[in-house]
Amino acid sequence: MCGIVGYIGNRQAYPILIKGLRRLEYRGYDSAGVALLNGALNVYKKKGKVNDLVNFIGDKNIKGNLGIGHTRWATHGAPDDINAHPHFSGSERLVIIHNGIIENYATIKSWLETKGHTFTSETDTEVLICLIEQIQKEGDLPIEDAVRIALTKVVGAYAIVVIDRLDPNKMVAARKSSPLVVGIGEEEFFVASDATPIVEYTNQVVYLDDNEIAIVSRENGLKVVNIQNEEVKIPIVHEIDMKIEAIEKGGYEYFMHKEIYEQPKTIDDCMRGRLSVQEGWARLGGLAQYKNKICNADRIIIVACGTSWHAGLIAEYLIEDLARIPVEVEYASEFRYRNPIISERDVVLAISQSGETADTLAALELAKKMGALTYGICNVVGSSIARATDAGSYIHAGPEIGVASTKAFTGQVTLLSLMALVLANERGTISSTQYQEYITELGQIPEKVNKALTSSDDEIRIISEKMKNADNALYLGRGYNFPVALEGALKLKEISYIHAEGYPAAEMKHGPIALIDENMPVVVIATNPSAHEKIMSNVQEVKARKGVVIAVVNEGDSEMKKIADYIIEIPSTLEPFTPLISVIPMQLLSYHIAVMRGCNVDQPRNLAKSVTVE
Ligand code: G6P
Questions:
Q1: Which run of H or E residues covers position 275?
Q2: Does the N terminus or the C terminus of the chain have fewer Cβ atoms within 10 A?
Q3: Domain covering 451-603, topology
Q4: What's the pLDDT tens digit per position in 150-188?
Q5: For 441-505, what is the HEC assignment?
Q6: Atom of ligand 1 nearest to the CA of 380
Q7: DSSP 3-state assignment of 183?
């Protein structure tokens, strides 16, 4: 959470910073600010979105070819103008932007108060910049040394960038547990939380590692040291392959809408080189080296958060059903604090779109420490989780910018379907005929998703009109569609602020049935053949209590038509792959309802896409 960007070079920094902040807004949008150095050090910051900042700045002095910018997701202190970043040090010589949390800020603050420091904001970040200033003053140090020494005294997570008014040719950046990328251009450098603010200027980037400090100066270029002040000899320069179109809306009103409609392509991209229908094979490069170990694992433990956790639940069905390896799915945040039993015979899968979610990363580190093999399933290339795992596979969904995850979810489920298939084939738990059937069917998924998108959209708009004023909604599914019900409810909550619950359909009678009346829309996902009859009975139970049933069914399901109030028809597929298609109406429904309620679909209140704090 929080997006940071910095620039040093020959161009004007301001337009680069503002454009970069707009790209990073998915990381938080409580307030935004910039600092620009042009002899004077000007800081402008404002509660609200980047647009509010731009309006506030108006025709103020925005000159400077060194600058930093920040978009905030509030942790310490309310989201207001004062707590917005950048933060000055007491003397206003130094300025900082920060993504993360300084956990021991209160102790440091008390110590600084004894030295005469006073604070204007409630943030941990202002404490850090005052600490840096104190250390700089006491030792008469260059800024990079003051930053480094200060960081030896803090506990917590950070990606920071600091500039010093009296050292105008330098920018100092550092990271621990929060992402930071340095872009290398022609006589110019960029730093940012991810590569999106950088990509149109250069494709050469260096990913900083934890406890590394980048000193970027006009005279000496990029130098990276660790916290012990040892130089990292040759930082590895990566070439990024990201297209500008991928991070722009391309004619859609919202990124979420664009990302929903990209799914036929992103699912195809995820399978490219991993599935051949003609030759009849599925494979995963990342798995090759550890296939034996995973095939013979005692358990696969999946750690994830949010939508990625729902993908993990689907993986539990897939891997147990096809490959017959026991699977446990854990909320990363709970896993790490409940003293879990993990052995060297376990494999831990971390699923994360961003690859930066703090809880998932910490769960992974714990599993590593306890000897398990770790495997990452991430979207963002070069992200912390991707780099921290023993092996892994990218889902290749391209940048996902809408806060509510859509194409990353189907990418994760596609990847996990491939994984289940590869493991099942290897272990001989499915016949070769079944293996071939699954391969053929997976190859058809992009086309079926496309059909689900185009054929259901009109009906979903009509249903959205009816549902948009509801206060509550219930989502029901069984088997493979139970996690889809959870995901449908989460999507609705996230972006339209309607309270919604996902439930296994049969569990409804143990509680939620008490809520059902004529005002309660009940979305029933009934596309998995093995559960069809049972779910029909559940629908009868809802109708008997006057609930309004919106049923998602396979094309041609005439039985459900007789009892449900609304029907959404989608193409059928083999049972293990049903979530890939049945989730499409869930995404569209929440999207249209949110738009009809006037919500900002891409930036729902209080949320952020990349949750880099606990
Ligand atoms: C946040 C986002 C969700 C996402 C979750 C996990 O809560 O708003 O959309 O599913 O984090 O993120 P990850 O990047 O680890 O998949």
A1: strand 275-276
A2: C
A3: Rossmann fold (3.40.50)
A4: 999 999 989 999 999 999 999 999 999 889 999 999 999
A5: HHHHHHHHHHHHHHHHHHHHHHHHHHHCCCCEEEEEECHHHHHHHHHHHHHHHHHHCCEEEEEEH
A6: 14
A7: strand
Which ligand 1 atom sits closest to the C-alpha of 494? 8
Residue 431 has pLDDT above 90, yes or no: yes
Q: What is the pLDDT of residues 245-288, one digit of tens each?
A: 888 888 899 999 999 999 999 999 999 999 999 999 999 999 99
Closest residue (by CA) to atom 1 of ligand 1? 609
Active site residues: 2, 609
Strand partners, 176: 158
Distance between first and last Cα of the chain: 11
Residue 506's pLDDT is: 84
Give yes or no for residue 605 having a pLDDT over 90. Answer: no
Nearest-angstrom CA–CA distance, 151 and 165:
20
Q: Which of 399, 410, 404 is nearest to 593 (CA)?
A: 404
Q: Looking at the domain that runs over 249-443, which CATH code has it been given?
A: 3.40.50.10490
Q: Rounded to the nearest 5°, which phi and psi values hold at 341?
A: -95, 115
How far is ligand 1, taken at its centre, from the CA of residue 463, in Å? 27
pLDDT digits (tens, 9 = 90+) for 33-60: 999 999 999 999 999 999 999 999 999 9
Tokens of 600: 């900002």
Half-sphere exposure of 229 (CA within 13 A, CB side): 8
Q: What are phi and psi of 521, to 5 degrees?
A: -70, 135
Q: Do domains 249-443 and 451-603 have the same CATH topology?
A: yes
**C-alpha gyration radius of the chain:** 25
- Distance in angstroms (rounded) separating the CA atoms of residues 590 and 473: 11
Put residue 73 in one of left, alpha, beta given phi > 0 → left and psi -120 to 50 → alpha.
beta
Lining residues, ligand 1, CB within 6 Å = 305-308, 352-354, 357, 360, 403-405, 607, 609-611
What is the fold of 3-246?
Answer: Glutamine Phosphoribosylpyrophosphate, subunit 1, domain 1 (3.60.20)
What is the DSSP secondary structure assignment for residue 196, as one 8-state letter?
T
The preferred substitution site among 27, 336, 352, 357 for testing ligand 1, maximizing ligand atoms within 8 Å of CB, is 357
From ligand 1's centre to the CA of 338, what distance in Å? 21
Between 511 and 311, residue with greater pLDDT: 311
Closest atom, ligand 1, to C-alpha of 357: 15
Mean pLDDT of 339-351: 95
Name the DSSP class of 93. Answer: S
- Is residue 32 a contact partner of residue 76, using CB atoms and an 8 Å limit? no
In angstroms, what is the span from residue 528 Cα to ligand 1's centroid? 27
Residue spans of the domains in the chain: they are: 3-246, 249-443, 451-603
Which residue(s) pair with 447 in the sheet? Answer: none
Residue 155: predicted pLDDT: 95
pLDDT band at 513 (very low <50, low <70, confident <90, very high): confident
Bridge partners of residue 67, in order along the sequence: 7, 36
Q: What gap in Å lies between CA 11 and CA 373, rounded to an integer?
A: 47
